[in-house]
UniProtKB/TrEMBL annotation:
<dbReference type="InterPro" id="IPR013078">
    <property type="entry name" value="His_Pase_superF_clade-1"/>
</dbReference>
<dbReference type="Pfam" id="PF00300">
    <property type="entry name" value="His_Phos_1"/>
</dbReference>
<protein>
    <submittedName>
        <fullName>Histidine phosphatase family protein</fullName>
    </submittedName>
</protein>
<dbReference type="InterPro" id="IPR029033">
    <property type="entry name" value="His_PPase_superfam"/>
</dbReference>
Length: 396
């Protein structure tokens, strides 16, 4: 049965197949069925999605639900915030937005009150690394966006194509903010702070975006990710430098680009403590399956809150293991750079400093600095130094 064969009734309250209702219940309004076989409906309980039997696809109720496209649907909650859900009703990411469109050509437009407008993928990832004042859905491989100089077309990788006039089609809002990432502060911190030995624990450079249903292990650095990683290394070029990385390709690439930028010989040393599995993972097979169906950001926040996730060490034990590894890379007068993933930076920094990542997720090449100074340890994060006591680091 083709979705187009399921017709909305003339009064808009149910669906018909060959002129007959496909279920008994009537709603106040219904939308069309879309892959994976769900339709948006509204009744006295709120807005939600139903299957072919007229049954709710999940328990949650919303103020509004949009149509599914590419296996994802936009919804608006009671607070007026937009988010995206999958066919089981689970949010695809923990962020909510001022406004969001449905998916078109693999991406959706979102507006955030602090960052501005951009496009995201069906996995809730940024399609590219930039934010704009305004954005419009992709059509024919290009999209309207507005920056400080006005409107332009961009490609799906974020590259500027050409300047253009403002689109004629009206839109529900006009943006007033645009986030421009600041210069990476870590090189300046290392240059301006006294230390005997220093280690950077950082997220890899900008990689290809995740897409719902696609494996993430093969994602490599983008051209911009390579360029920014090399620039990071160049900013540290006056100090002896070593790099360690999760065996994931994008992490090793980041380490190699940092070395190249610093003009250093040698290769990035791979370490399972930094990823696949990492210091936090007791059973890699279980964890891999777990993150296929559960959003990393949502699970990471639950993990640092003390929830025991499948295949993981307790968060404090994992942090102790990660600290021991990073500490082992320290050498007098040198900087070690340990390239890992956002999922492991979050618990590390959270446990050691108490930092709340709910509204501030680590970006690409974002990280913390462990400094040894006169037999004391300090962790720099977000402009603050935290004195650590390794002898009782994670003990209550």
């Amino acid at each position: 049965m083709d979705f187009d064969d399921l017709i909305i009734s003339p009064d808009g309250t149910h669906h018909l197949y060959e002129g007959r209702p496909i279920y008994e219940h009537h709603f106040q309004s219904v939308g069309p069925f879309r892959f994976p076989g769900l339709a948006a409906v509204w009744d006295d309980t709120g807005a939600y999605h139903i299957n072919f039997l007229g049954e709710p696809a999940y328990n949650e109720r919303y103020a509004w639900t949009g149509n599914f496209s590419e296996g994802v649907a936009p919804v608006r909650n009671a607070d007026g915030r937009y988010l995206f859900i999958d066919e089981e009703g689970k949010p695809i990411a923990f962020e909510t937005y001022l406004y969001a469109t449905g998916f078109s050509e693999g991406s959706a437009v979102v507006y955030h009150e602090t960052f501005g407008a951009t496009h995201i993928t069906t996995a809730g990832e940024l399609l590219y690394g930039d934010w704009y004042y305004d954005a419009r859905p992709f059509a024919g491989g290009k999209a309207y966006v507005r920056d400080d100089a006005g409107w332009l077309f961009i490609s799906p990788d974020g590259s500027a194509l050409e300047r253009t006039k403002e689109p004629d089609t009206p839109f529900p809002l006009r943006g007033t903010v645009r986030y421009v990432p600041p210069e990476n502060p870590i090189p300046k911190v290392l240059q301006s702070t006294e230390w005997d030995a220093a280690a950077v624990l950082m997220r890899h450079g900008e990689r290809e975006p995740f897409i719902k249903g696609q494996p993430g292990s093969t994602k490599v650095l983008t051209t911009r990710g390579r360029r920014q990683s090399r620039a990071f290394g160049a900013a540290l070029s006056k100090v002896p430098l070593r790099t360690y990385a999760s065996p994931m390709v994008r992490c090793v690439q980041t380490g190699d680009e940092i070395l190249a930028g610093a003009g250093m010989d040698g290769e990035t040393e791979k370490s399972l403590m930094l990823g696949t599995p990492s210091a936090y993972v007791a059973d890699d097979d279980i964890v891999r399956e777990f993150y296929v169906v559960n959003p990393v950001k949502i699970m990471s926040l639950r993990y640092v809150a003390g929830e025991m996730l499948p295949g993981h060490y307790p968060v404090k034990e994992g942090t102790e293991r990660m600290f021991s590894f990073v500490e082992s890379t320290l050498k007098d007068g040198e900087i070690s750079v340990c390239v890992t993933h956002d999922a492991w930076i979050v618990p590390f920094v959270s446990v050691l400093t108490g930092y709340d990542f709910t509204d501030d997720w680590p970006g690409f090449l974002d990280g913390c600095v462990l400094m040894q100074r006169k037999n004391q340890y300090f962790l720099w994060w977000r402009g603050e130094e935290h004195l650590l006591d390794p002898s009782s680091l994670l003990r209550e």
